[in-house]
Amino acid sequence: QVQLLESGGGLVRPGGTLTLSCAASGFTFNTTWMNWVRQSPGKGLELVAFISSGGGRRDYADSVKGRFTIYRDDAKNEGYLQMDDLKPGDTAVYYCTSGGHWGQGTQVTVSS
C-alpha cells in the first residue's frame, strides 16, 4: 500500500522554525523526486520545493528561498522540509508528493 505520511506541523511564532517530515512506504522512494506543496487559505497550490532522486538537484519557490531547506534520507525512506524564519504568509497545509502520490497534509500556522 502506497503511503506518504507528513508530520511536524503546528503553531509557531513569526521567526520560528519547524521541520516537516514525510515518511514514504509502498513504492521505491529512492528512485523518485520529492516535492513539498502548500495550500494557503483561499489560495491555490504552490510548489514550495523539490529534490531529485539522490538529492543532487533541489530548488525552491522564490517566496521561501533562503529560509527553507529540503532534504531526504533514502535509507529511511523519508524526506524533510526545514523551515526557518517563518512568516505569517507561510501559514498553509503542507503536502509531501513523490512518484505521483500525495500525503494527507500537515497544518502549519505562523502567528503571534
Task: Please tell me about this protein's structure.
The model has no long low-confidence stretch (mean pLDDT 96). This protein is an all-beta fold and 112 residues long. A hairpin with a 2-residue loop joins strand 9 and strand 10. The strands form 2 sheets. Strands 2, 4, 5, 6, 9, 10 and 11 form a 7-stranded mixed β-sheet that branches. The protein is globular, with a radius of gyration of 13 Å. It is built from no helices and 11 strands.
Keywords summarizing the entry:
mainly beta, seven-stranded mixed sheet, four-stranded antiparallel sheet
Q: What's the rounded overall pLDDT mean?
A: 96
Which word captures the global form? globular
How much strand? over 45%
Structural class: mainly beta
Topology:
Elements: E1 3-7, E2 10-12, E3 18-25, E4 34-39, E5 45-51, E6 58-60, E7 68-73, E8 78-83, E9 92-98, E10 101-102, E11 106-110
Parallel strand pairs: 2-11
Antiparallel strand pairs: 1-3, 3-8, 4-5, 4-9, 5-6, 7-8, 9-10, 9-11
